[in-house]
Specification:
By secondary structure, this protein is an alpha+beta fold. 14% of the residues lie in helices and 32% in strands.
Length: 98
């Protein structure tokens, strides 16, 4: 299992295991918000900074718009990607296809 991070300058990095809350908060730079999405036609979660657009000069993460577009909206700041949600509400890792 793995998870990934994507910065506003386009750097993508893969990590082993399942992230803890503190890992996600460090990546996004604050409180996290989970957005359900689809990557490679499979359920996934995009983790964003829930207050990312409220900073003085929010930076749009254009690469996220390509990987996991939101209808009529955009993502500010660095993000993390994990797989979907398991049957008991647990965070899953990304699949090989994702």
């Amino acid at each position: 299992m793995a998870w990934a991070t994507l910065t506003v300058d386009g750097a993508m990095e893969f990590h082993d295991g399942i992230p803890e809350l503190e890992d996600l908060q460090e990546v996004v730079g604050g409180y996290v918000e989970a957005i359900e999405c689809s990557i490679a036609r499979t359920a996934a979660t995009t983790w964003i900074n829930e207050e990312g657009k409220l900073v003085a000069e929010p930076e749009r993460n254009w690469k996220v718009d390509v990987i996991s577009p939101l209808a009529g909206d955009w993502i500010a700041g660095d993000v993390a990607f994990t797989g979907g949600v398991g049957p008991e509400g647990e965070t899953l890792g990304l699949s090989e296809a994702q």
